[in-house]
Amino acid sequence: MRIFLGLVIFAAACGPNTSGDDDDSDVDGMVTDDPCTGAEIRCVGTSYQVCQNDVFVEQENCDNVCDLELGCVDCAPSDPRVCVGDSVYACNEDGTVGELIEGCDLKQCHNGTCGDEACGAEGADIIYVVDDSYRLYSFDPELLPADPFRLIGNLNCPAAAALPGWPVPGAGTPFSMAVDRQAVAWVLYNSGELFHVSTQDASCEATSFQVAQQSGGTVFELFGMGFVSDEPGGGTDTLFVAGSLAANVGVNRGSLATIDTDTLQVNRVNALPNGTYSPELTGTGAAELYGYYPGAPASEVARINKTSAANDESWSLPAAEGDVRAWGFAHWGGLFYVFITTNDGISDVANVLEFNPETGQAPAVLTNTGKIVVGAGVSTCAPIVVP
After folding, report:
1. Does residue 118 register a pLDDT over 90?
2. What's the pLDDT score for residue 80?
3. pLDDT value, residue 131
């Protein structure tokens, strides 16, 4: 999603070590720039970190999973079922892989369950983004801290002009994106049109989606999108959207709805909580829906109730430094990646934040990327814990 400056417009097993209060000037491990106090510990992806001399220091980069209580383990005890190959095993309380629960035979093991629908499509387990220059990229978090962006190609979707509610008339541009289990990107343009885009070569196909559908008293012109599994580890998904009129996206949060992926019919769920800036959405294979709101005075990540549209849980993030121009949002491995572009009145600054709901922190893992991301998407085939 995108805002043009000056206008409200969107386009777009080691165990824990609690000896953090060490008066010795030496520290063991890789030192981060993040301040801390006392005996704090944290997991940042697979990095197990403790507080030493008022900064976080990496003690170990885990091969599989970092757990706040246990440190580096083979699996997360909070998820009692774990996939090892195409079989489901128990995860013991100490983070070791336990007994075999079941083999998946011809099905694929996904999020601790033998799924009814395979997640075997190439690239179905990573994030994709589109920028304001129509460029489609893959974004693989496992490549961090190196550059995780890989250019796939330029979109050439046959979009009409921007919607009449768009304050700046012009050609249609990408607004938001979701990705399904077949690794097909569903890209919404600010014309209100919905396209299917290949994540292999960026080729584009028009759909029969009807622009500006009305449901439950809300007109859905522009919206954020995200696929969510219908049950934890299940084999079917639902496409959730959040928004309203093009002219209202920066004024209120609009409503939550679903889109039937066969008929492309919009069905309103309920109004989103009061506030400005409609959210970008992302879903997980654990059947959870999340939204990112970039609004002032602080941005927010929320776990959204799929039935009531209320926030079941929310986390406040620091306010953006400058005017928000664009953003995208996607889950991967229990973490959330926020692609945020701000302007300080002189130039655009595009950063990538990595939000960890366990710590509530969202450090920048990439800065000044030069990519003004207006949409991000990830399928429910993505891992729900760092593999």
Report:
1. no
2. 80
3. 94
CA distance 111 to 237: 14
CA distance 142 to 382: 12
How many beta carbons lie within 10 A of that of residue 98, not counting itself?
16
| C-alpha closest to that of 176 among 192, 165, 163 | 192
pLDDT of residue 242: 93
Q: Which residues of 279-306 are buried (b: 16+ CB within 10 A; e: fewer)?
A: bbbbbbbbbbbbbbbbbeeebbbbbbbb
CA distance 28 to 166: 54
Which pLDDT does position 29 carry in this prediction? 66
What's the burial of 249, exposed, middle or buried (CB within 10 Å: 0-12/13-18/19+)? buried
Exposed, middle or buried by CB within 10 Å (0-12, 13-18, 19+), for 47?
buried
What is the C-alpha to C-alpha distance for residues 385 and 79, in angstroms, rounded to an integer?
9
Nearest CA to 223 out of 236, 209, 233 is that of 209
Q: Sort 360 into a burial class: Cβ within 10 Å, 0-12 / 13-18 / 19+.
A: exposed
Confidence label for 231 from pLDDT (cuts 50, 70 and 90): confident
In three-state secondary structure terms, 381 is coil
Please name the helix (run of DSSP H) or strand (run of DSSP E) that holds residue 36, with its range, or none: none
Which has more pLDDT, 7 or 283? 283
**Strand, coil or helix: what is 141?**
helix
- C-alpha 362/C-alpha 364 separation (Å) is 7
pLDDT at 211: 94
Q: Which residues pair with 12 in a beta bridge?
A: none
Do 125 and 119 meet the contact criterion of CB atoms below 8 Å apart?
Answer: yes
Residue from 185, 238, 227 nearest 207 by CA: 185
pLDDT (0 to 100) of residue 223: 93
Q: Is the pLDDT of residue 31 over 60?
A: yes
